[in-house]
Batch of 2 targets.
Target 1
Amino acid sequence: MTRLELTKKEIQKFAVVGIAAGLVASLIICGGFMLLLKHNPQVLGVTQALEQKNGSDAPLHTSQEVAVVNAVKKANPAVVAITISKNVPVYEQYYEQIPSPFGDFFGGGFFGGFTAPQLRQKGTELREVGGGSGFLVSSDGYIVTNRHVVADEEAEYTVFTNEGKKYDAKVVARDPALDLAVLKIDGSGFEHLAFGDSDKVQVGQTVIAIGNALAEFRNTVSVGVVSGLSRSITTSDRMGGNAESLDQLIQTDAGINHGNSGGPLINLAGEVIGVNVAMADGAENIGFALSSNSVKSIVESVQKTGKIVRPYLGIRYVQIDETIKEKNNLDVDYGILVQRGAEIGDLAVIPGSPADKAGIVENDIILEVDGTKLTSDKSLSGIIRTKKVGDMVRLKVLSKGKERMVQVTLEEMK
């Protein structure tokens, strides 16, 4: 009994001491935290970000999440789903009397013949046959998408906004050189997206892809990073046809699924830095987007003139690499060599072209355009694509062993 009573007293004593110690520690921690807030006010900003509700009871836990959610909220009203509809044959089944091959031998009766099911066309009906994505780039209804989404000139195209509103769409222009098209819907006051500067995009930067995934799930959002820049690929459809070479692409691990084609790739400011165009089959998280600087000038030309106006230089060339350098005994391993084509009449410099007027001749080597070295990552076609008709560009040219600077005014490609 005595030993048990003593144990209880000891327990009570230790409990009181523990509680007192806990109170003291709490006061020290709270005081330290208040002192930290006093001298580090940014901590308070992080705390407030953690408590932000964003329309739901679940708080966002990082400033990254806040930025992503805000960018998506900004972009979503401008992202549209595009459905493809076409008149397709409608068939009906009927039964046809087939004479028996044994009728001549056995007469009628059991071997008199039989009926077989057959199909015949009974008119056509308009059906949805596919879909893709796009996004509004102006308040008066201009929409950017991929050319392969609206490639069928006999099909009808319908646009659905994120709010579910339906619009008939007209294809204004299809770019033959880039997988890009511009649509138009009637109306005004549409929320739209602005283009960012894709030249400032960095590997590792957070990006967001939005689109009509699988042509079924509108405004699906996926988040990733920029995995690579200035990529060159050859694309084809699911059947392996319609091959096309594309360059100056942004590579991302943000999910780009079938149906996402034509949707925007945006940065955390909600600006379009790319147009989703392709994904790598047989691989995970490898998608590609056309750079915004390649797209912007094309869209502007369509808005102003109703057609795609593309600037050109007017030369044929090959990209110089180590193999070309050694084979032709050149002094440089970068730039482009102005050279005629394989067919008779494929001149190196097109007569009357901007390059011809500037004095560019066959076997000249163009090293730089506006201070940018021409390499496999920075192609001449990619740089010229970002320019406008009437722009003046400065070329560094190596001609007969001597470097010179040449100014060229770009003209419209006919």
Target 2
Amino acid sequence: MLGNLFFSIHFCVNWRAKITLIEEPNRPSSNPLARVYFKIGRYLISILVVTAVETATGQNLDRQIDSLQALLKVAPDSSRFEVLFELFRLNLGTDLGEAERFAKEALKISSGLHDTLSLVKSNNALGYLKKEMGYPRLSISYFETALHLARLKNYRSQIKFLLNNLGLAYQKTANYARALEYHLESLKLREEDKDTQSISVTLNNIGVLYQDLGDSENAFTYYKRNYDLKTKAKEFYDFELCLTNLADVSNALGRFDQAKSYLNEAFDWCAQSRQCRKKNIGLAQQILGYSYMNSGELAEAEGEFLVASSLFSEIQSPDKIDSYRAIALVRFRMGDYDGALEKLNIAQSMATAYEIPKYLLQNYQLYADIYNKLNDYKKAADFQRKFITLNDEIYNADLIKNIARVQSEHQEEE
């Protein structure tokens, strides 16, 4: 294993040496392809090293799983829950199907034992899995069952986790007012506990919610609060995600130079700390692609989107949808309408399977734009009608009224 690790590091260093002449983030090469290769070279360096380390860690993980499965065969019912829950946790990053199997068995055991805390944890685990698999509607009943039980016993830490998970699940199903209620209640508890990392998570989630609503100013406010909190407390977990979200909303506000500045800071942080998660680097590459696209640099944008797509694993379904749609959008702007349709069809098949309204809405609008350019006005009109119908369902007068009510109640409590 050490030999493989040395080979990966040696290969990365040599690859980096080949592109040192264009490794100038503030003065990118005038050659679009050179810039694309620069990005690939620079930001996959750390990923290749991490992959080698992950291989070593993965072997250790396999041994842990094997040991726990052996223990499970002889463990009495009173101890089986802890073993099953640990097996669920260890499988989360590699095999969601196996993680679900262990979580279901843990729920069965905890029901037999009538142990409330175990019931809370196993319901939360199954809800989390459904959400991560791309089925947020199916996750809500598990989370609500767990939250009800946690409130009965006043399991404060579990209540905070569940409020956060319910906020995210309702957000993904476009029930934004309900999501905001849960996120703001979660934020209140976390601020009372003065837990910086925990507060940071909720500030980020509220920022994402406002961005989904199209309220970029409020989104920026919460993202900036998160950034200020992290830097002041020197709590840098997921710092690259914080910077990426600031860049994303800066793009939406038309502040393209500011967006690139935040992204440069994110990439520098990843190079310096070597702590960035692969998925977050992919998100940063994707937002950089949007910065290029909004500046009219389409070749550079496509290169960033392709790199981002390669960094998302198959279990990160929503991110895959985003990346396919991004490639479709840049090809549309290039005038490659057939190429745009090819990628958008992939994004649409995934969005339909997972029933996430935000992605369906974005895809309908892009379909309408593409078919208009192809002079297929019937299909364009069909997708435009779908867009209008879904848009009205999500962003209706009740939503605006309910968001205003939740915001007002939160301000009164403060």
